[in-house]
């Protein structure tokens, strides 16, 4: 009997060694993580200033941020320094705000709202003050004629005065109830002028006693200010407000299309402005009834971080993508210098988005760029994008990207990398969060939020062939849209809401809603609030009759809602929030916080990996290779391929 049993076992042994359990064990022994270097390399800049024939620019998204010194005669970076950590918790990643005073360059940083100085004579960098906690910004900085500095901050919506000679700081207090952003400042001998983003007001502060006076209100936030002589000028969307400094003799003119990006004023009072999203250059003089376009974009589809008149005939512009251009005002001819090519030390940034195309290439969206890794050759390439690609989707031989801050939809040709504009959402919808492609209707669908103090987002239906965009504002009343998911059968899109909208306005609703929208009839089918008191969905995904949702507020809470009964049948808690994906009949999610984790969602959340890091700029994402358990993602700021086999023990990824 024993001999017979041994014979049977011997016969079965090869099958046991090659069966499912053996294959799972072999898969779990395979390399767990492969890293491929920085996912997105950037030379993007935020702040810029000019002093004595040199330009000083501050990088965006690098840790630590770099302040680079550019010799404007040669257009070469001649030195660079980094901005060290200040005493506040967290590290600076850039500096939107720059100003020159007393022969030094001053920088206001984010996401720690600190003030630094750089002395070109000695090369010394000094941390001067902190204006708040981690998560804040010094959005704007200006020097008065006597050298006193004025900083506009977020999220407290205040202006601070800093005296370089003494280090004294004065806080002018709340400028408008509920305001978060002082997006622009300018100063003269007597007054400080502040542009408020949420409340769309131009206010004047008397430097002597701190008295605050409202000079003007606008339809949208004030994004740029300039002063000259007895006049102050402020940009609000596509409109320019031009008035005397006492608030009288007001003139308003508007661009034919787009919005005003940056302003500067010549000695004779001529105003030069750049526009978004095209990047063209315009001229205005008090009394004109319209802008005059004087040049095509020196850096097409770019933002302008500063304008500066080098002399009576030459306008300098600093492009957010990482460049400096000069424009001959007489001929309209321009030249452009890429700062990385000029010697700016670029580095890895926090990516915006990712897409895997047919196991052929991985596309990673960065700040004003797209980085592509060819999976067949291992080669990398990089090309310009007109902003931040918040989300990517494929249709045929093109990728479509939803762009912030323009609210533009663009296509990228997979064969040539050609980037073309499809259309702009408009309607104040400048924060597109999610884009998908519905094969049944052959349309793109976009979920968006407004910019500034408004609550209602929109669902936009985009015809990728004609560029027609139908925008349905308030499809979930009093909420913006953070996410959407298509019914697998097509024709219906499910929407996840956010009661806070663009921020800065008290919410009306108490709980984030889910709604279903018929793409053929263009009507809302139903709306429910799955969990009372949870205010913001980060992502939703429909699978097998259930709608899975991950909340940002309450952070990390997740649900599975039965679409037939509209009731929550599963609920749990993750380390944080992120993006959902469906692969091989299972639901996965990658999250911020707790070190950066990946889970499978079923009856409960099963941890698959930890230690991925928290370096996404938007949502952590997973992009699985078809037919395998390997997913493309981030480890820190590196592009990585990770084994996420549900049969294997959880991974602990080391930095």
From TrEMBL:
<dbReference type="InterPro" id="IPR011047">
    <property type="entry name" value="Quinoprotein_ADH-like_sf"/>
</dbReference>
<dbReference type="InterPro" id="IPR051200">
    <property type="entry name" value="Host-pathogen_enzymatic-act"/>
</dbReference>
<protein>
    <submittedName>
        <fullName>PQQ-binding-like beta-propeller repeat protein</fullName>
    </submittedName>
</protein>
<dbReference type="InterPro" id="IPR015943">
    <property type="entry name" value="WD40/YVTN_repeat-like_dom_sf"/>
</dbReference>
